[in-house]
Amino acid sequence: MADAVDLRSDTVTKPSRAMREAMARAEVGDDVFAEDPTVLELERRAAQVVGHEAALFMPSGCMANLVAELSHARRGDEIICGTDVHIAAHEVGSGAAVAGVQLCVVPGDGRISAEQVAERIKTPTFHEPGTALVWVENTHNMAGGRITPVAEMRHIALVARAAGVPVHLDGARLFNAAVALGVPAREIARHADSVSFCLSKGLGAPAGSMLCGGAAFRERALRFRKMLGGGMRQVGILAAAGIFALERNVERLAEDHARARRLAEGLAGTKGLDVRPEDVETNMVMADVEGQSADDLARRAEARGVRFLAMSRRRVRFVTHLDVDDAGIETAIRVIREEAAC
Ligand SMILES: *Cc1c(COP(=O)(O)O)cnc(C)c1O
Description:
With 342 residues, this protein is of the alpha/beta class. 42% of the residues lie in helices and 16% in strands. The protein has 14 helices and 13 strands. A hairpin with a 4-residue loop joins strand 12 (309-310) and strand 13. It is globular and about 55 Å long. Pyridoxal-5'-phosphate binds at residues 60-62, 65, 86, 137, 141, 170, 172, 198, 200, 209.
């Protein structure tokens, strides 16, 4: 399906010709020996952009998150997080299986408040696990790309730090939050002790995530990356795509956000579909399907060249990204309206 409008995820973006040319030009070396100049340059830039001391190039966001869990927590420790965060919902239980941590999930749509965190921070006793980490996902994927505002991030960090507990920011889509709020990414990231972000989503790189934090954190993370088999060799080829993405594909996220809003407005009022344009803050639109299953709607639209995911029996998700243009959005609106009303 060459001309499909693919709204399944912002992970489906393909590297542009210019990005591929940057990859082809990359100087490389053995990164396990810390000798790949392009990886070192990407790590320097990533640390700078989030305002942290150091950064580590990771093969994936899932590995970045697992390494963050391993680096901050011991077996049996607890991590406070929101509902349906990626580590709870979409990482195959790796935190439990590999890091041995348990999650203390705050009820709600996935965004958490400082007050909710304060109520749940525990010091270990004879009976209770201790809180090792507070986990904030911003933007929050399953909440529909919703943003935790900077002021709330600051309050969460204050509460956590007062208790001696670090904060990890799963910023897979940190730059979507930053662009939507009109603030530099570091203004959000400074309220966390470690930060992961994806190069492979809206930023358009073919692979890779960054894990950022202090120098001592990076040292710990480096050993866990190696333990998990995440040490890579002449990977400057991928790092070059990451540098290109940070230079060229951040500001343009605003276009994805505008298209998501246009999509939500175009779908509002459709029979058989409940969409709330006012909930669209970044590059995602969530909708509840009525009169058929979410899977059925997704299948019917796919047969007409419009792809998106059913997230549950009732709920579908549309994600905009750099490979979806205005014409694609108009096509999607037309097809989804027709198929939802059937
Ligand atoms: C995509 C995503 C990740 C990491 O996923 P990878 O596919 O492993 O890069 C982590 N957290 C969130 C919130 C995500 O959406």
